[in-house]
Amino acid sequence: MNQDFMKERPVLPLILSMALPMVLSMLVNSLYNIVDSYFVAQISEDAMTALSLVYPIQNFINAVGIGFGVGINAVIAFHLGAGNESEANMAATQGILLAVIHSVVMTIGCIAIMPAFLNMFTSSQAVVDLGIRYSVIAFSFTLMIVVGVSFEKIFQAVGNMKITMISLMCGCIANIILDPVLIFGYGPFPELGIEGAALATGIGQTLTLLIYVVVYVARPIRVRISRKYLAPNVKMIAKLYSIGIPATLNLALPSFLISSLNAILASYSQVYILVLGIYYKLQTFLYLPANGMVQGMRPLIGYNYGAGEQKRVKQIYSIVLGMNGMIMILGTVLCFVIPGPLIALFTSNQETIQAGETALRLISAGFLVSAVSVTSSGALEGLGKGVPSLIISLFRYVFVIIPVAFVLSRMFGAIGVWNAFWIAEVITAGVAFFVYRKSVGQHDARRQKVILENITEK
After folding, report:
1. N or C: which terminus of the chain has fewer CB atoms within 10 Å of its end residue's CB?
2. For residues 278 and 356, is the Cβ–Cβ distance under 8 A?
3. Angle, CA 351 vertex, CA 420 and CA 335 arms, to 5°
């Protein structure tokens, strides 16, 4: 494949060809999350509550895998754009090695902290027991998750979005099929309950990784993983972490947010903790497709940035922003029109459904403006600007929503927490617009300065 297609093809068709496969796979992944939760909810409301409490730690594991993968993706795309394949190969090789190390550390650490973590948010030993049983199995597949995501980002960096789409979809479909089979014990399979849900998820993630490895061996791509690049290179490792750490924090912040909001809501009723957990399951059906657009955008922005194509970088950003806005409008309409049926997917408790209807309607008021934050943060990561991207996420997940939720909850109860969501999105959208424009403007000024210096020297 001619890699220069990233800077030669018309922008809109190029974005669609890169992003739509990821949007499709993210939609399937969203469906997997909802189906997974649907079957767990059939076990008991305690099981669903346990899943909601485990979610922040699961999200942290995913955040480390995806965040560091974003670092691998951005560094590879930049070096390919600059025509330096040797550096791109080194980034891929050392990225995979570091991903394995991260996996081992997280597997041990996350399993060890779960009993204490769960007891922080509930006094129900039944919920704690279900959470531990689920997490021990789910976290045992951390290596598959993190290394699988690293391969995903390598394939995306060279523009091969179809393989990532196929791999993700196969893993998700396998999980959807195995969920009821392993939870309820259909056919020759034993009834495993909540452990069956964790095992189905792990098998799906393992299948995704296996597909990446088989395709990488059978159909070599432009970037290669090689022994000769295994020796630690401080400069390369620093590049990977300079983008990967802020990206990881971006993705891990929702875990911190959920835990903080759970602590606030626990003082009112466990029903609200369940509602928050259900909301985060539902919002994946909205934000994962938006993230699919961002994933399609990142290598394009990184490649064109490395190639000095600033006009195309701006065009790519504007088009993806518009597409994400359309996704958010659809989500807003659904949450306003049918909030009850959406909540009822996970519970038959009328009190929970009524509380969930109110929550969805209030939270969804901030969906549209959140497109600015999501797109700007992803674009900055693609440009290798991890710190400005992190600033946006800190405003979105920490600086605004937590203090506002705390104050409003003291005034209006749980409804105050739901209002904090849209207030935070509006404020963060303004911050994101300013940060993105300033960061891109600084880069343009530096590039023009370098060009003038080179002309003067000649």
Report:
1. C
2. yes
3. 50
Q: Is residue 364 a contact partner of residue 332, using CB atoms and an 8 Å limit?
A: yes
Classify each residue of 333-356 as buried b or exposed e, where b means 16 or more C-beta atoms within 10 Å of its C-beta.
ebbeeebeebbbebbeeeebbebb
Burial 259-285 (b: 16+ CB within 10 A, else e): bbbbebbeeeebbbbbbbbbbbbbbbb
How far is the C-alpha of 38 from the C-alpha of 159, rounded, in Å?
Answer: 34
Tokens describing residue 146: 């993190």
Q: Name the percent of the chain lying above pLDDT 90.
A: 49
Determine the Cα–Cα distance for residues 167 and 181; give it in Å rounded to an integer: 22
pLDDT of residue 106: 96
CA distances from 121 to 115, 176, 195, 246, 260 (A): 11, 29, 21, 28, 10
Q: What are the pLDDT digits (tens) for 340-378?
A: 999 998 888 899 999 999 999 999 999 999 999 999 998
- List alpha helices for 307-366, DSSP H: 310-337, 339-344, 350-363
Which residues have C-beta within 8 Å of that of residue 137, sequence separation ≥ 6? 195, 198, 199, 202
**What are the residues whose beta carbons fall under 8 Å from the beta carbon of 54, sequence distance 6 or more?**
114, 118, 131, 134, 135, 138
Is residue 143 a contact partner of residue 66, using CB atoms and an 8 Å limit?
no
Task: Classify residue 365 by its DSSP letter.
Answer: G
The answer for residues whose C-beta is within 8 angstroms of residue 28's C-beta and 6 or more apart is 168, 169, 172, 173
DSSP secondary structure letter of residue 347: -
Q: What are phi and psi of 225, to 5 degrees?
A: -95, 125
Q: Mind listing the pLDDT tens digit for each residue in 73-114?
A: 889 988 887 788 899 999 999 999 999 999 999 999 999 999
Residues in the chain: 458
Is residue 159 within 8 A of residue 1, CB to CB? The reply is yes
Q: Rounded to an integer, what distance in angstroms lies between the CA atom of residue 334 and that of residue 325?
A: 15
Nearest-5° Cα angle at 344, 58 to 29: 40
Taking the C-alpha atoms of residue 323 and residue 294, their distance in angstroms, rounded to an integer, is 10
Rounded CA separation 271/182 (Å): 28
Could you tell me which residues come within 8 angstroms of residue 131 by beta carbon, excluding any fewer than 6 positions away?
A: 50, 51, 53, 54, 114, 118
Find tokens 């939609």 and name the residue: 27
